[in-house]
Design a protein that fits this description.
There is one protein chain. The chain is built from 1 helix and 8 strands. A 5-stranded mixed β-sheet has the order 2-1-6-7-8. It has a 3-stranded antiparallel β-sheet with strand order 4-3-5, with no helix packed on it. Strand 3 (about 110) and strand 4 (about 115) form a beta hairpin. It has one helix at about 15-65, and strands spanning about 80-85, 95, 110, 115, 130, 130-140, 155-165, 180-190. By secondary structure, it is an alpha+beta fold. About 25% of the residues lie in helices and about 20% in strands. The chain has one domain. The longest helix has about 50 residues, at about 15-65.
Length: about 190
């Protein structure tokens, strides 16, 4: 049989009180980091929405560049030097509405089936507002790229500007990062013989 020797003072373990104090300090440190986690989730969601908005804008610009320059989707109505979506304006321009410039994305989507709808009201249960709105404007300029040209006069370039914004946010329709959920991209189109 072995005999136990008495514990020496330098072999002592941690007491229950010391462990509780250490856990309290650790818990306070973790609680101090929690706002960073919440902020990173919001920032990641905002970055995802901005990435999607940029993709939708580039997609529309690529689509528009493929049309002939006299296509209805690129037409500026007579008497104006810019075509805008319904309700749109451009500072310093004489604008007219071109309905092709209006939102071309669906109004509703159903995630469970992937269906989309352009109905003015919800088609029913399980349908959600489509997360993006995409519109564009067309402006006509002379060769100096600063003088606007009123249709039907000859122009040198058309400036296409696509705007995409999110209809959803983390805190309401726009969320806390309003500017990060909207993108505007532009492109000059020259006349084929210009």
């Amino acid at each position: 049989m072995r005999m136990r020797r008495p514990a020496r003072a330098d072999e002592r373990g941690m007491s229950l009180v010391e462990i509780l104090v250490a856990l309290t300090i650790l818990a306070l440190a973790v609680l101090g980091l929690m706002p960073l986690f919440a902020g990173s989730v919001k920032t990641a969601a905002s970055a995802g929405q901005l990435s999607n908005a940029n993709t939708l804008a580039r997609e529309k610009l690529e689509e528009l560049t493929g049309y002939p320059r006299d296509d209805q989707r690129l037409t500026v109505p007579n008497g104006a030097n810019a075509a805008v979506p319904t309700g749109g304006t451009i500072s310093g321009a004489t604008v007219a509405v071109n309905t092709f410039c209006n939102n071309d994305l669906p109004s509703w989507y159903k995630p469970s089936t992937g269906e989309v709808s352009s109905a003015s009201t919800s088609p029913g249960a399980g349908w959600y507002v489509y997360p993006y709105v995409r519109t564009y404007t067309v402006e006509q300029y002379a060769t100096d790229l600063t003088t606007r040209v009123t249709a039907p006069a000859a122009y040198a370039v058309k400036l296409l500007t696509v705007k995409v914004h999110s209809t959803q946010g983390l805190l309401g329709p726009w969320g806390p990062f309003l500017g990060l959920r909207e993108t505007t991209q532009s492109l000059y189109l020259r006349l084929p013989n210009g």
